[in-house]
Specification:
Elements: E1 4-5, E2 10-12, H1 32-41, H2 47-50, H3 57-71, E3 74-76, E4 82-91, E5 94-106, E6 115-116, H4 123-136, E7 138-139, E8 143-147, H5 153-161, E9 168-171, E10 177-183, H6 186-195, E11 201-205, H7 207-223, E12 234-241, E13 248-250, E14 253-256, H8 263-272, E15 273-278, H9 282-291, E16 297-301, E17 306-311, H10 315-324, H11 333-345, E18 357-360, H12 363-371, E19 377-380, H13 386-394, E20 405-407, E21 417-418
Parallel strand pairs: 6-11, 8-12
Antiparallel strand pairs: 1-5, 2-3, 4-5, 4-10, 5-12, 7-21, 8-11, 9-10, 13-20, 14-18, 14-19, 15-17, 16-17, 16-19
Helix pairs in contact: 3-4, 4-7
Length: 425
């Protein structure tokens, strides 16, 4: 069974001011403009910890946390607790709610088959977060995971807690409303821990943070006397049942900087895809994708022109796919796009983020980036369901980077967890 624990959370006090001025988007979603905006909002905004502007950012983050604790801007819970956290948001005119638990989850190596990744990771982001962990000895932002609860035991627990009075209600820059409830009752927590017997988890967001935490755990084990209850054996996680109706996954569109859509490329597309010219508008692009869901369909946008691509159903194409597409995950659009369109047709080679390839969450953003000349061509894709992500991860299969976008991201600054050498859970 996965081991979840309550923890003595460190949170902002009333002395810090309005929570709306304190929270921030996750560190990897903060661009330079947002960073400036957060700095202006408050001298205690969480961006100043997770992504300081200053050059010696790890040292600065550590100094700020120590100072804020000393000044009473931050304070530690007197007893271990868990949290229920809900995000309310709108998408395409429809309202959603996503609710889960914030707990300390024991760190498991992937080989233990308790926690599964679903995407590849990069060295640089892991090194960055590892350096931050070493400096601050705190889990600053949660890893987001999903699990299955067909018996609805944990779902019923969450529903009951959400009927009580919350401790935090705040709306972020993206108009997402965050509500947090606290649970300190030891018996209720004990029952919840039992309800996780036999469950496993799949990381949806925060792979780099999780893997950095594993490295940090192993470093600490080699340096200090430790027990299974040492806090650095755990990580602060937001865990959501896959049955949650508000578990929304958005597509991540790909934009290439150095490749053009010309007649030769179109002819190559026609070998593998049914190619349909469509209006070069956001509505037309989105409509094509929606009407060809589960058909291995893409849209290509180059500014003046747009096309819909649907994988052909013939023997030659299937033979090529079987021979040239990553076997484990060849049924997924992003893999076919990478292996047939990028590697075989365009011969892109290694694509580095920002240098060769950009990613966009919204169709509008992808179109605008091409129109502004930031990229030469955009490939638009359909999303993958949360259930599918869970199933492939538990089969030890990995999707290409940026294959999923669980929306919205968890806001940062609601709480953190102490993982210093002497901290126990």
């Amino acid at each position: 069974m996965v081991d979840i624990r309550p923890f003595k959370a460190i949170r902002y006090t009333e002395k810090a001011g309005d929570p709306a001025n304190l929270i921030s988007q996750p560190y990897d979603k903060i661009d330079p403009e947002m960073q400036k905006e957060y700095y202006q909002k408050s001298p205690y905004n969480y961006c100043r910890v997770i992504l300081p502007m200053e050059e010696n950012k790890y040292q600065i983050a550590h100094q700020r946390l120590e100072q804020w604790l000393k000044e009473g801007i931050l304070a530690r819970e007197s007893e271990p607790v868990i949290f229920v956290s809900r995000q309310e948001f709108s998408l395409d005119g429809k309202k959603y709610e996503r609710t889960g638990l914030i707990v300390a989850l024991r760190l498991y190596s992937y080989s233990e088959n308790m926690v599964f990744p679903h995407e590849f990771t990069y060295k640089a982001p892991k090194a960055d977060r590892l350096n931050m962990l070493r400096a601050v000895q705190k889990d600053l932002e949660p890893v987001f995971l999903i699990y299955s609860d067909t018996e609805r035991k944990t779902i019923n627990f969450i529903d009951e807690v959400a009927k009580t009075k919350p401790i935090i209600q705040v709306t972020d820059l993206l108009k997402v409303k965050h509500t947090v409830w606290i649970v300190a009752d030891k018996q209720k927590i004990k029952q919840l821990q039992a309800d996780f017997s036999g469950k496993s988890m799949v990381i949806t967001d925060g792979h780099h943070r999780y893997e950095s935490a594993l490295t940090y755990r192993d470093e600490m084990r080699s340096k200090v006397d430790w027990t299974e209850n040492s806090a650095f054996n755990f990580y602060m996680c937001y865990i959501v049942p896959v049955q949650e109706k508000g578990l929304v996954v958005l597509p991540t569109h790909r934009l290439l900087k150095e490749f053009k859509l010309n007649s030769e490329v179109l002819d190559e597309f026609k070998r593998f895809f049914e190619v349909t010219e469509i209006m070069p508008t956001v509505d037309a692009l989105e409509q094509f994708l929606k009407s060809h869901f589960n058909e291995h369909a893409f849209c290509v946008y180059s500014g003046l022109h747009a096309y819909g691509l649907t994988l052909k159903h013939n023997e030659d194409v299937y033979d090529f796919v079987n021979a040239n597409v990553s076997k484990e995950t060849k049924i997924f659009d992003v893999v076919i796009l990478r292996d047939i369109v990028f590697k075989h047709i365009l011969k892109t080679g290694q694509l580095n983020i920002d240098e060769h390839i950009l990613y966009a969450r919204w169709t509008t953003d992808a179109v605008e980036k091409v129109d502004r000349g930031e990229a030469s061509i955009a490939f638009l894709v359909n999303p993958i369901s949360a259930q599918t992500v869970m199933e492939i991860a538990q089969q030890h299969e990995l999707l290409p980077e940026k294959s999923t976008d669980f929306y919205p991201k968890m806001v940062s600054g609601l709480m953190m967890m102490d993982i210093s050498a002497n901290e126990k859970l």
